[in-house]
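User: Structure please.
Assistant: Input sequence and predicted structure:
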Amino acid sequence: MVSKKPEFETSSALPRSAANDEAVRCTVIRGGTSRGLFFHEQDLPSDPAQRDRVIMGAVGAPDPRHVDGLGGGDMLLSKVAIVARSARTNADVECEFANITPGKGRPSWGTNCGNLVPAVALFAAEERLVAMGGGAPVVRIWNRNSDSVIEARFSAVNGEQKECFRLAGMPDTGVCVDLDFVEPVGASQSLLLPTGNARDTIRLQDGRSVDVSVVDAGALYVFVTAGNLGLTATETGKQLASIEGAFDDLEFLRASVARLIGLVEKVADATVLTPDVPKLAIVGPPANYRYEGSSNEILAESCDLVSRIISSQKYHKAYAVTGAIATAAAASIEGSTVHEAVGDRVSSGLQEIRIGHPSGVLACAVETRISDGSHDIAFARIKRTARRVSQGTVFVPRLT
């Protein structure tokens, strides 16, 4: 005898997994080599603590896997952008970025995320926060994190955006966006050289002396000469992790600079109190190396220097746009560690620096004005892409 298939109750009687959750409108966009969750500011709570709860829930943090949210379990894939129309005369929209490091219990609102800026422009255009005309339309973005303006220009034909450009390290093309970071100096410290020097020497705990340059353009960075640490700046993440004490030395250098410029009173406090400001980059002269996780080789002649970024004590698998800006600015400063790595090349005017990083080569141009020994960066220019990944609703746990 065959048993009759049971009849299920109507769907309205079935349990709802989101019954105790809160629905929030959300768009996921890949910008550059990062991916982020994009929210309209009006859709989020105005109270900062509740806002942070919502975005952490949307990402799936603090679980390092982000399995219960839309994060990627990776600092490059678990960012958040909040966007709104701007009342400022020099901007069309304004945005604020949060970094969510896997395993951390709260978001970090410290600095600009240059890779997501083209995604902000795409979000603003597609969500009709700005009026898009013909030709090559421009979106003027004010970034609250760094109190700076970025002009984003879409590549367009007859006013229609074209997916025309494949970024190094990315498997597919995206909407091409040219970015001008206007007067990017002083994102954190209001000075291009926060220590007043092109180069400083930090003594490690074992007594070794290491040369660093502290530069604040796009974001605040510490540039470390790779050779001082027995490195080449071509190391993969696994190679760097296999070198005993390497990450400890790099964090000590970063923390020492944080104390030197007054961010913390004690070196030991920096990892907890200011874990992602300043960021750190290892720099060296051009060299052949292989893509991260690939057998494909990048040749020395394709770049002007090689560099690896450490952010929140983790190896960066690509290169931050803000890091590229700081690197290009530092290359024009005579005596800096970056200037040395590119071969003591310095000039005023517009110059482009090609940075060899784990996922390829990133080019950044800066307009440098040098007068009576003073440095001024009028703008930094870089090309990125953006691609909308998904759009809809994310469910986050309600307050209890």
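Residues 5-14 have pLDDT under 50 and may be disordered.
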